[in-house]
Structures are given as C-alpha cells and as structure tokens.
Protein: Arylacetamide deacetylase-like 4
Organism: Cricetulus griseus
Amino acid sequence: MQAQVLITPIVQVLNFQLPSHLQKRNVPFLTRDLMISFICKYLDIDLSWKDVMLTGACVSLNAWKKYKKWVSSDNIPQKFRSKSFQPKLGPFNEAAYLETKHILDEKISPLLADDKIIAQLPQAFLVSCENDPLCNDTLLYKKHLEDQGVPVTWYHVEDGFHGCMVLFDKQPFSFPCSRNILNAIINYMKSISS
C-alpha cells in the first residue's frame, strides 16, 4: 500500500498572505521572517526579494488568477481565519518575478500541480499544528487532494507547533504533542498495512 505522510508541510511558496502566515508570524521556532529566509536560501533567491515575496508582488495577476482555486484563503475553513484577516498583496514587480518565477514550478510548490496529477497521488496522512505559520498550507493541500478524490486522513494538533515532532525523544524538551503526532503516524501506518 502506498501513502504520503506529510508533517506540517510547505506545499506552496506563492501565497504568504494566508491567515496562518499572518496570524502566526512570530511563533517560536519558525517565525515568518525565518521561514522566508530559509525558502530564499533553499531556492537560491536573493534575500533582497523577501519582502516582495511576502506581499505576493512577484506573482503576476494572470498567475494569481490561474492558481487562486488552490492558494486562496477562501478555501480555508473559517475556524482557521480570524475575523480581522485582511491579506495585503503588493503591486506586481516584474523584476522580482523574473528572479523568483521558479516558485510556480509544481516541483517546488506541489499544491499548484494540475488536478490530473493530484488525482493520481496515493492516499495521504496530513499533520497540521495550530501554532504553525504553515497550518493553512496543509489545509489547502488537503482540500486539493480531496477535491480530486484522493483519500485524506487529517490530524490537527491544537497544542502543536512547527518542528515539535523532532523533540519527541528530547527530554526535558519533549512535548505531549510530539508524542501524540508520532503515535498518530504509527497508528495510520499500521492501519494501511493491515
């Protein structure tokens, strides 16, 4: 049996105006600034483009229209959005687009993959954490998978945060959420192998 298990994944680097990116911008271990710095370094994007990427100004209006059905905050349940949530997209910056256009590649942003590709993926176990800037990325990926008929098991950790999983055996820094995530993954793997 094949399955994909994704723990607090980053599945798109197009929309940093999602509610969790804005509302959880200063949580410990993965602040928004640290996250965008890691992304820029990983994708070999000059750090001078960070602010342009955060406002979405490096994405053309045509690209926003094309990918809206997958990256729009409208696809996120109201429970995960505050009433005061207001995304603020910046004006298109062509120079930034030319430097960062590879963020639209589905190998970098798998959420942007065509529906036909998504429909061929194996069942998924997705973990999201309440105190994680990437929480909404997981919810968007979940919706894209489900919309294409891919079975999804979703485990949301109310007291979890990005990176908590790596602390599951690091006493005294282990948190109950770490062990809970590990147990949920083990139980899922057992359930699909039997």
About this structure: The radius of gyration is 17 Å. The mean pLDDT is 93.
